[in-house]
Amino acid sequence: MFHDTSDLASGELFLRLRETAPARPEKGWVPSYAFDICLPDGTAAGYCNFRIGHNEKTYYSGNIGYGIDEAYRGHRYAAKACRLLMKLAWKHGMDYLLITCDPANAASACTCELAGARLLETARIPQDHDLYAEGKRTVRVYRLDL
């Protein structure tokens, strides 16, 4: 089910696999990967994760999540990591990815656009979604065609 990820690299960064997680159908969770976003010397500048497949949960939480440590922001590492994850999506037979962000997070919206995604909508999060339980009420949904 999980694929080799050693090719998720560019001259500027690489993704170091931290863990994989199986699906949890009872929660609506799909299988996933978690990575450190690393500079060529191995320094972790942030993280990203990749969720395999599409369902109602991934529509609101996205197939990709990311965060960049404050000291490394401004270099577009998150967008570049998203582009690397496209390779992994292809291995899993996916033809598009969803990336979501808080409507108030302009930097994350910019990351989605830099990665090549287009805005589909600002969606209301259903009350039974994990994000709603975290206090979130709306999310911007972007689609990245592969």
Instruction: Kindly report the spatial arrangement of strands forming the biggest sheet.
Output: 1-2-3-4
**Architecture (CATH level 2) name:** 3-Layer(aba) Sandwich
**What are the secondary-structure elements, in order, as H or E?**
EEEHEHEHEHE
Number of helices: 4
Query: N- to C-terminal separation?
Result: 20 Å
Q: Report the CATH topology name.
A: Aminopeptidase
Number of domains: 1
The dominant shape is globular
Report the radius of gyration as a whole number of Å: 15 Å
Low-confidence stretches: none
Query: Structural class given helices, strands, pairing?
Result: alpha+beta
The helical percent reads: 10-25%
Look at the structure and give the CATH class. Alpha Beta
CATH homologous superfamily designation:
Gcn5-related N-acetyltransferase (GNAT)
How would you characterize the overall build of this protein?
This protein is of the alpha+beta class. It has a single domain (14-145), classed as Aminopeptidase (3-Layer(aba) Sandwich), CATH 3.40.630. The chain is built from four helices and seven strands. The protein has helices at residues 56-61, 77-91, 106-114, 130-133, and strands at residues 14-21, 32-38, 44-51, 64-68, 96-101, 118-124, 138-145. The strands form two sheets. The protein has a four-stranded antiparallel sheet, with helices on one face. A three-stranded antiparallel sheet has the order 5-7-6. Helix 2 packs across helix 3 (106-114). It is globular, with a radius of gyration of 15 Å.
Tags for this model:
23% helix, alpha+beta, four-stranded antiparallel sheet, 4 helices, Aminopeptidase, globular, 146 residues
